[in-house]
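note to self: dont lose this again. the chain is below, predicted strucutre after it. 125 aa total, dont forget to put it in the shared folder this time
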Amino acid sequence: MNARTVTVFTVDHGEVTLPEPFWCRGEHPAEGYREDIEHQGEDVSLMVETPCHGVVQLLTAALFQRPFSTHGPTGPLVAVDAGETELHEYDAQHLAGLADSLVTFAVGPLHDLITRLQLLEGGES
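---
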């Protein structure tokens, strides 16, 4: 099986040909710098039902890799978008920590709030 490659035109290195990971969506804008070339995987989203807005996206995560980055790891990593102004980037160890924190939040403080809310809805103060 031959490895896929992609060629991206850059303003500083001309045409750059590099291996294309199997998980990459294959979208590589031209006219950037070589260090900005990025492989991006499909988004995985946490969708939740809200009573006021219907189904909304709470978190989105996707694999990415910057093979020529000069400002950090070359990847692959996972980018997590929580609707903030910047993405958070995780390696496997730190992504596992995020997952553990989400589970802890769901079964701990969030369930405590559910219990309190149920008491308040039942007329207790």
